[in-house]
Amino acid sequence: MENAFVLELSESKFKDLFVCFCGYAQCEPLHSFGPAVRPNYLLHYIIDGRGCYQVGDHRYYLEAGEGFLIEPDVLTFYQADQKEPWSYLWIGFAGRRAGEYLEDLGLNGGQLTFRTKQGRELKRLILQMMKCSDGSLTSQYRLQSLLYAFFAALAGDRQEAGEAVQSQENFYVERAIGYIRNHYASQIKVTDIANYLCVNRSYLYKLFQNSLQMSPQEFLTRFRLSRAKELLTTTQLSVENVAFSCGYQDALVFSKAFKRNTGCIPTAYRTEHWRATRRHYEENRELLEELMQEDSLRKLQVRG
What is the pTM of this model? Predict the structure, then answer.
């Protein structure tokens, strides 16, 4: 369980970037959320304690001063430490340029965690946001300004730490990952990625080997199959539709690639993991319903 203070909003007049909800929580030992899929972006910043965050096969052990990004439609799980359970603040947001603005902070599908010294300022901003609960026009503009201030705090910290001055190689790799994340469902090839970056395939291969210890083709395949695992686990789409949704036009080619990666065919993977996902969902049903049942802006409230 957790003691949480939450502000949720149903809609926004802003389109590029806007707040969906925000809050602050003190978690009990081993308190967890998920596995679950969110419809929007979500940033957590850890104020005290520690815990773990899991995305696919990757698990991150985080502590005070660090944070993590949850992307839309990605299956995630996170849990407080047993001995030092974390307290964290969070902000959920969306918008047609949200992904672009996160890229400015160095956050994307290839970089889901961060460290910042702006914890006190981030907490102050979230507490100010939670006061904007009356739905007035003034509060809407105030909330929007606080959201941009939140991003500014993270951007400023990144620049002060010297992370804003990236090498040309890292810049290219980040842009390539962003392109894959946005176009993996299409029939893109490594040549398309190279053309997007205006570099040749050999140089792109070198960049990926130096930064990620894998080829661009391997990264693209892993990314597609990671999304396929999520769809198989969280939806009832047919294997053929999952294949199409992940950039494979031939379901047989998809099934062979999936088996090489996981050791089993898609239907077997779904059967094995669907039960576990349903079990976790049922265990967290009450919390999920509390988070999703409100359709309109509600005032700050304390939940036990």
Answer: 0.54
